[in-house]
Amino acid sequence: MIFMETLQLHLDFVWLILASILVFFMQAGFTALEAGLVRAKNSINVAIKNVSDLLIASVVFALFGFGIMFGDSASGWFGTDLYFFQGLDTDPWNWAFLFFQIVFAGTAATIVSGAIAEGVKFGVYLIGTFFIVLIIYPVFGHWAWGSLLNPDQAGWLEQLGFVDFAGSTVVHSIGGWVALAAAIVVGPRVGKYVDGKVHSMKPSNVVLAALGVFILWLGWFGFNAGSTATGDTSIAQIALNTHLAAAAGGLFAMITSWILFQQPKAEDILNGVLAGLVSVTAGAAVLTPLMALVVGAIGGIIVVFSLIFIDKVWKIDDAIGAISVHGVCGAWGTLAVGLFGTMALLPNETRMEQILVQGLGAAVAFVWGFVLGWIVYKTLGLFMTIRPKKEEEIQGLNVSEHGASIAMVDTIQSMQDIANA
Amino acid sequence: MIFMETLQLHLDFVWLILASILVFFMQAGFTALEAGLVRAKNSINVAIKNVSDLLIASVVFALFGFGIMFGDSASGWFGTDLYFFQGLDTDPWNWAFLFFQIVFAGTAATIVSGAIAEGVKFGVYLIGTFFIVLIIYPVFGHWAWGSLLNPDQAGWLEQLGFVDFAGSTVVHSIGGWVALAAAIVVGPRVGKYVDGKVHSMKPSNVVLAALGVFILWLGWFGFNAGSTATGDTSIAQIALNTHLAAAAGGLFAMITSWILFQQPKAEDILNGVLAGLVSVTAGAAVLTPLMALVVGAIGGIIVVFSLIFIDKVWKIDDAIGAISVHGVCGAWGTLAVGLFGTMALLPNETRMEQILVQGLGAAVAFVWGFVLGWIVYKTLGLFMTIRPKKEEEIQGLNVSEHGASIAMVDTIQSMQDIANA
Amino acid sequence: MIFMETLQLHLDFVWLILASILVFFMQAGFTALEAGLVRAKNSINVAIKNVSDLLIASVVFALFGFGIMFGDSASGWFGTDLYFFQGLDTDPWNWAFLFFQIVFAGTAATIVSGAIAEGVKFGVYLIGTFFIVLIIYPVFGHWAWGSLLNPDQAGWLEQLGFVDFAGSTVVHSIGGWVALAAAIVVGPRVGKYVDGKVHSMKPSNVVLAALGVFILWLGWFGFNAGSTATGDTSIAQIALNTHLAAAAGGLFAMITSWILFQQPKAEDILNGVLAGLVSVTAGAAVLTPLMALVVGAIGGIIVVFSLIFIDKVWKIDDAIGAISVHGVCGAWGTLAVGLFGTMALLPNETRMEQILVQGLGAAVAFVWGFVLGWIVYKTLGLFMTIRPKKEEEIQGLNVSEHGASIAMVDTIQSMQDIANA
């Protein structure tokens, strides 16, 4: 029997490492999505933000955050050891698990980059990332997932029967609510809301954004099906659920957009796919394929209305819609576990109890993510200039932050000057 | 022994799910390829078509098409159950298999988007996709692959010994011939054929198209080597064959192009790679590596001549060459199984018999795909406006279909107006 | 016991094929990186070079180079059989191994394309590639890795205890030093060094380059963790090491750049990630995660200074920094095995001995790669025109080599002519 277990273990390693690699690649998806949805003058800046937050997230989470999330639990509130790789070299599984968790942390962190893509200074953004992966993400992660490495270390939300299979709440909502706080603190872009009128800012490259969505969709298979951490028959349904929810999310966002605007807006379709993916993430392992399709479809409808509401009613300027996609749909997906999940696979005894616990987890994530995100960005504002100067913002962050301009944009600029002269 | 089988099964799940994910990602490849090869004013539209046809294909094929392709066979002609996931939850393998088949159906459907990329309205295209994944693809699929899920359900082409390992005919030719019908019904783009002269339309972004080819090449390893549906030693030769055919296809297309035009045209090299891939798909499991290289090389030569022939002689306007790549090379690859396949691995007793059956299958695919494609698009033309208005087409489908323009293109447009004034 | 071995073998096949696929995809990464870092007028040309060198590398290495690298050894100097697939069909493992080695050879070859991206004719470049994969790469590969297929065939460097796990030297330094030779022979681009002044040439698309870096990073997991050629528990630490070195490389290059230039230059961050990856490649299996992080961080610092030195002091024009990233950091990573590797996992008895052997291997790679690269390009110069004509170079290689222009660039060009008139 020992040999059989060894082979299954080898297969688990192969599966988890490949899943980690897929999740890692989601960073490229975020980069393409965000660079495509912002204006060309900020595209390099946002791409470099996406690269750089992964650099910081990887190093900081590996050295500190991992211990806070999975170390010996202080009464279910946060972990207290495993810093600086201490104690991890006893079992190669720890390396596989650490790698998987690093790329998850990177995902949570990078969600923020989209919302405030065009209006925050590079250095401020990097320090914000530092606090997300050091405290905000791993502490909440400990509450919901603390037992993943050591079954004895269940966090307090877990102990209540909170279910978030692959992170609708832990990763996406947390990222989304920090993004909400950051967007409020940073404020709208120059020219976004003028005299009560809402101006939409044209995306520079929708094709690139579409490729970003495909890359994210690809990586999400690792995100969800990899969260089994074992290569067995369960991965099929999870992968299928993920795919169907994404497709249904995109499809119903398209229909919603077509009805509302008489044209299926490209951004709505793309955000609809992501909404479906975020929505199914919590319940990927406890939904039937038909229910996954329904959950994704509802997510696709929700995201279109949420995008309108946050932009037009609340007048919070989210450059790419990250708050709606990750925050709102993350909460929806978490509730959907209670509403549509297969009861036999859920820890609570009645559906109502499960729904209440799911709601509690989603609410706690909102308070924790939003408040701490607000504190981090407000505090940074006491010591640093958060926003570029107005003329820098108008010129674009590519130049002001990196001295990097796009030859073609430059040429067009000079042409316009000539024409206007 | 039961445990050994369980482990192999787990490995099969891991392999098939990963292969499915790779095939899924081919959609990103088609998106990049097609957006790169069309003109900038239509690039967003074609990208969104590629996203949207996957949404429709996934939902419609999962709920209906899968049953038609793999359900209980009506005398080898079409399947009659398994609709709406009915009866699939008895075995997790069904979920893995369904996922793999969904992404295959998506591939067949999206091939059409390229050929008619710049000249068909969005809504029409989506309805066309609906009929492809509901009827055209799954019915033919049942004839050739009906036994894949249930060995007792062999379709009539299978029963004759027709071999199409991963779908040169079932996926690529079917997609290509529907594209041919659609291109004929839709007609050439404004300005393409004027007074008997053939105008070539400049691709907007060849670099993006090259990335698209690499992504397709990547996904094709899942397409071909995943079609074993089992993780064993056979996947090595299949993957190697796929790679060598792609390389030889590109190389010989480059040489052919260099000889014909004194310059190796970028599009010919890219289409040559795809031609090699399509050509080897039917025989990937029954060709030696040397023969795979030969089959790919011939595919690369064929595609260059086919592109010229269809454009210049037949004057059928295929915006990106999809008919030549998928239709013509799909037929070539299917025949090549008979011509170059290892006889011991083929069901027919003589090479001549195998060649005839291969030819029959390719011919049936042509008739089925072309005629049904023609009927679908002609019928749609009775109820809807298929083509954008001439001024919409000149303005570009990005704006007319999605209200999405590219800031840089807009600026240049206005600059030209100023200059012309 | 036989069945257990069969299952592990199947898992090894799955792992090695997937790793090969990831390495293959690095070509897309190089394409995006190089097309993004050169000027728009050469972007198509460099993308097509990246496609085409893989075509040639795949066919030539499969038919010839593989035998030279892994065939029956002539006293440890080069292999003498296995040409044209002869003798390989006895064991399917040979197909898996051949596929993995083909994509490695493609990587070594394509490194050169970046350095001389904007200044060498297409045909010359292809012939250069031919000699790299026929002689330069496989002969050195035989010295260091000759025993990988047949344990009895250890090359002379291996026999001395030289350790280069996944190819910091064998692949990256060899590619980098050939690139150095090519860059010297080809000479700087028009306008690069004028009257002793160094002009920097603006990259056309940094976002695309960033995506290229993510794709390379993705592929590198296959490159390093796949070099185990077995799916077991060792892959976790290797993948983690790869990730941490990349992150640390990018982070410390960012810090270095920020200090030197008061702004974190986008190209430095991107090259820092690649530097970290190249640096950890030799030692990925013998470094602890902490040491991998350190080795990557140092690589990130080295690359920033190396880029300055080669450009400003030596005045060698390397269009994208390939010599620094692959040549210099490859040598660093090779030395780092001796400096930071876990002694128990290294073949030599003392650290000093190991360092000396590592230094010898790195030095031999420099001499071999540089001298043969120089001979190849110098000899080509005797028979062919290596560089485009000055007016072709100014017009850009997209047009002069492929007749392929970018519509938007054309428009801007004409606008400028109008404005200047």
Task: Provide structural commentary.
3 copies of one chain form a homotrimer. Chain A has 421 residues and is mainly alpha-helical. Chain A has a single domain, classed as Ammonium transporter fold, CATH 1.10.3430.10. Chain A contains 15 helices and 2 strands. A two-stranded antiparallel sheet of chain A has the order 1-2. Chains B and C meet through helix 1, helix 7, helix 8, helix 9 and helix 10 of B and helix 1, helix 2, helix 3, helix 14 and helix 15 of C.
Q: Could you give a quick summary of the protein structure above?
A:
The structure is a homotrimer of 421-residue chains. Chain A is mostly helical and 421 residues long.
Q: How many β-strand stretches of chain A?
A: 2
Number of domains of chain A: 1
CATH class group of chain A: Mainly Alpha
Order of helices and strands of chain A: HHHHHHEEHHHHHHHHH
Spatial gap, N to C terminus of chain A: 83 Å
Largest interface: A-B, 60 and 60 residues
What are its keywords?
Ammonium transporter fold; globular; homotrimer; 421 residues; 1% strand; mainly alpha
